[in-house]
Amino acid sequence: MDGNGVEVVIAHSERATLRVGDVFVKVDADQARLDVEVQAMAAAPVPTPQVRWHEPPALALAALPGVALGRLGEPSTASPAAWAAAGAAVRTLHDAPLPPWPGRSRDELASGLAEECEWLLAHDVLPADVVTRNRRLAETALRPWTPVFIHGDLQVDHVFVADDQVTGILDWSEASRGDAHFDLATLTLGHPEHLGDVIAGYGADVDRDLVRAWWSLRCLTNVRWLAEHGYGSPDDFPEVAVLRAQP
Predict the structure, then answer these.
(1) Which residue intervals define the domain Aminoglycoside phosphotransferase in the entry (predicted)?
(2) Is the dihedral of CA 25, 31, 33, 34 positive or negative?
(3) Which long-range contacts does 50-55 make (Cβ < 8 Å, 24+ apart)?
(4) Cα within 13 Å of Cα(218), Cβ side
């Protein structure tokens, strides 16, 4: 990209991110999300982007060094050591003091799951047996857990690495108290072959079945949002591929 140009990184009805040189400018209709992002980055004991300025409704962040760990729906070229480093960074975050604001309750998650499953069936996005199977699996994630400081949207392309080290983690607007397995599931969604690497770096007991359950829950509850915000046909979504592949 020309250093004097403006690149639209993402844009939909809720928020937009623009890149101008080495600065990313996020514009969000919900000021609370930007406030959480700034507070979470200040509190997180892991590398985060430098805040250049914050003037509602916009937030300017410096670009991170390195490259994204991967992309959902594409093979990752990152090494197992880089994935393990990501797992170690997640563990550091989860061991940090809890943020002062709460996360979504199990009741809220269960209600959202039910609503989204009804939408998927009503719009014939997936066969009923695929929805039912994944919903049953997803519901096993909604058990009592000990809350930790979670990123809340730890997609694989939000983690940047260089020389097998994490150089920064992006997009903290969903940070809150929550289940550690949710972050681990979001990071490895669509990349099950790297779950072992992440767990090795994480260095603590991880229930792989709960990670898989969160894969189902995240995918079931994301498909409608993606479809309604211009991301194409659900048939082409990596999330739908994950749901179809779940046992």
Answers:
(1) 38-203
(2) positive
(3) 52/23
(4) 26
* Amino acid code (one letter) for 30: D
Q: Residue 204, SS3?
A: coil
Give the span between the Cα atoms of 100 and 37, in whole angstroms.
13
Q: Is residue 109 scored above 80 in pLDDT?
A: yes
pLDDT at residue 10 in the model: 85
Domains of the chain: 64-245 (3.90.1200.10)
For residue 36, the SS3 value is helix
Tell me if 160 sits within 8 A of 64, measured CB to CB: yes
58-80 burial string, b = 16+ CB within 10 Å, else e? ebbbeebebebbbebeeebebee
- R_g (Cα) of the chain, nearest Å: 18
User: Which pTM does this prediction carry?
Assistant: 0.94
**Residues 5-39: pLDDT tens digits?**
899 998 888 889 999 999 999 999 899 999 999 99
Contact 12, 28 (CB under 8 A): no
Q: How far is CA 8 from the centre of its chain?
A: 20
Pairing of strands 159-162, 165-169: antiparallel
